[in-house]
Amino acid sequence: MVYGDWKESYNLLPRVVHAIGHYNPATRWYTYTGGRTVTDKSGKTAHVLQRVFWCFGQCVAAFQYCRPVLLVDGTFLIGKYKGVLMMAQAVDPEDQLVPMAFAIVEAENNDSWQWFMHLLRVEVMGKERKICVISDRHAGILKACKQSYRGYPPLEHRWCVRHFTTNLWRHQKDDEVVNKLKVLCGAQDERDFDKLYAELKKMLTKEGKRWMKKQMEKKKHWALAFDEGGARYGIKTTNGAESMNNVFKGIRALPVAGIAMYSFAKCNSYFVDRWGKAKLAFDNGARFGAPMAAHLRNEEKLSVMQIGDAYGPDRNLYCVRTAHGSGPGGERFGGRNYKVQIEEGICQCNFPQLYHAPCSHLITACQDRGLNHKSSKYMSPYYDKENTLKIWEPMFQPYLDPSQWPPYDGHDYCPDPDLLRVKVGRRKKKRLRGDMDKCNGWGKDKYGTGDFNELPGKVRMADPRFPLLEVAYEKDHRAPAIESGQVMPVLRMRTHTHVLLWDERYAPYLRQAGFLDLARVVNAGLPPLDPPLLTSLIDRWRPETHTFHLSCGEMTLTLQDAAMILGLPIEGQAVVHVVNANWAHYVELMLGLPLLSAILETVARKKTRTAGVTTRWLRDHFQVCPPDADEVAVERHARAWLWYLVACFLLPDGSGNTVTSLVLPILSQPWGNIGTYS
C-alpha cells in the first residue's frame, strides 16, 4: 500500500518530505516529538510523531509577489488517529489561493498553534515585510501574533469577519442582527461605521450589547474602517483558506503520508495550470488581475459623473462631488462630497488607504490633473498581472518513486497512541455547523441555506449505541425510502463494451505496462451484470465507512483483493493526478491526433467542455488497427486501447460516454513506467 497502513504512514511521512526536499532543495520540514518514545513488543523504539511542518520553496519564493497577507486556518483529520491539518495561504492578483505551508499536529491548542506560527514566521514570512495574519480568534494564534522576534518586524493580526460575527450568534441568535454586524464590519469610513453602529445597538439585547461593548475596544481587528495602514488589503475573511480546507476535505481520511503527497501534487498542479492561464492573459494585454481590472473599469465609469474642484496653489487638494438623484420611492442617493489628497493618494472614502488602489474620487482628481491613476504611485504592484506570472513561475521537480529516493538516516516514528480513535460508531466528517456555514446568497432558494435543521430528520439505527449516520448522505440515498416502506426500482446498469477491439499486436506493449493479464481477462468475456444483486449492495453501502453493512457484519474490498482479482500492483506511486488544463496536448502527444474535432463534438453533444474525449471519438479513430499499420501506428492504437481499459473499465465515472483525461499524464509515459503506479 503506497501510504502504508495507518501506523506505518507516520514513519513514512518524514521519508516522503525528505525525498521531496532532495529533489526540491528549498523545501523545509520539521518534526516535533515532545521527547516521547514508544517501544514495541520486539524491543524496537520509535519516536512519537506529534507534529510535522513542511513548506515548499517554490511557494515561499512566490510569497514575495503576493500581498503581505496570510490566511491561516485548520481542519480536523478523520482517519484512524486524531489530528489537525493546519494551513497558511496567500492570495495572488486574481484572488486565487497560493498555498504556503502545511502542518499536521495533535490538536488545536495554544502550544501547537504557537509552534506552527513560529515556523511560519521564520520559514515563510521572512524579515523583509510586515505581514498581516487573518484568522479566527484562537488563543494560541492571538498569543503567537503578539510575540516579538529579534530582527523580524511585528505582525499585524486581523480577525476573520465571518468567524467574528458568528461569535455574536452565541449571545443573540438573530440572523438579522448578525447580518447587520457583517455590514458594520465592512463599512469603509468612520462616518458610515458610526451610523451603522447606532442602528445595530437598537437591535441588540442586553447580553448582545454587553458583548459588543467589549469588542469595540478591539475594533481595528475586525472593523475594516479602522484597519490601520490597510494591513488587510481589503481581505475580510478566511473564506479563501476554508476553500482550501474544502480541497483537502476529501483526503482527511487518508494516512498522513498521503496528505503530504497530495499537497505536493496539488501545489504542482496549481503552479502549472495557473501560470499558463496568466501567461495567456498577459500576452493578450492584461495588466492587472481580473478582480482589480473589473474594479478599475467600474470606478472609471463612476468618475465620469463626478466633478472635482482643485484647492491650493499646487492643486494637491480636491473636493470631488458625486452624482445624485432620487430612487423609485423618492429616496435620495449620492450627492456627497469627498476630500482627495493627490500626492498622498488619500481619499475621504478610505478606499485607497484600505485597498491600496484608487477609488472613483481619486480617479476624478487625477484626470483633472492629467495624472495616470494606474501608476505605481496609486496602484499597489501586488495587483499587477506580471506579479501573477512571477508567483506561478517556479517549477516543481518530481520526487519519483521510493526506489529512487535518497537514503534516510533520521529517526523512526510512530503515531501517538493517545490519539487512536476508540469511540464506538462512525467517525465524524463535518464540524458542527453554525451561522457562518449558512448560504445567504445566490442559490439558497434552490439548494437551501445549508442549515443542518433543513436536512431530513434523524435516521433510525438498528443499535441505539451507535451515533447517527451522516444525515447529509441520507438526503439523496435510497436507504430512507426503503426504511419508510417504499418499493424502490432495481437500478439500471451500464457498461462500456466493445468500444475498441483487441489486437494481438498490442500484447508486447501491455505486457511492459503490466496490464496484459487484465487485458486477457477482459477479452475472454466478463460475467453479465446482475442488477438486483448490485442494487442490494448499493443499498447497503455507507460512504462514511467505505463498507457494506450486511446482516453478518461489515464488509469491504481491500487493495489486496483488487491485486488478487485484477493482477495489478498495489505498491508504487499512487494515481493521484488531477485534471490538467493541457490534457488535450497529452492526447495529441499520445495518439498523434489533434483534438479539435473531439472538443467540438463534446460541446455540441453535451453543451459543456469536459476533460476527456467521447467513446464515439475513440471508436471512430481507434476501434480497429489496420493490418498494414506501421510500428508507430500500432503503438498508438495500443495506448488508445489501454486508455479505454483504464478509464472505462478500471476507473469509470458517471459521465456516461466520456473517457476521462485524469490518467493521461501517466499513460503518456514510457510503457515500463506505467506499471510502476499502484
Automatic annotation (TrEMBL):
InterPro entries: AminoTfrase-like_pln_mobile (IPR019557), MULE_transposase_dom (IPR018289), Znf_SWIM (IPR007527)
Spans traversing the lipid bilayer: none
All residue ranges annotated as the SWIM-type domain in the record: 338-370
One Pfam family per UniProt: PMD
Top-level division of the source organism's lineage: Eukaryota
GO molecular function annotations of the record: zinc ion binding
Protein's UniProt keywords contain Secreted: no
Keyword Ligase: no
Alphabetically ordered keywords of this record: Metal-binding, Zinc, Zinc-finger
UniProt-recorded name of the protein: SWIM-type domain-containing protein
Species name: Paspalum notatum var. saurae
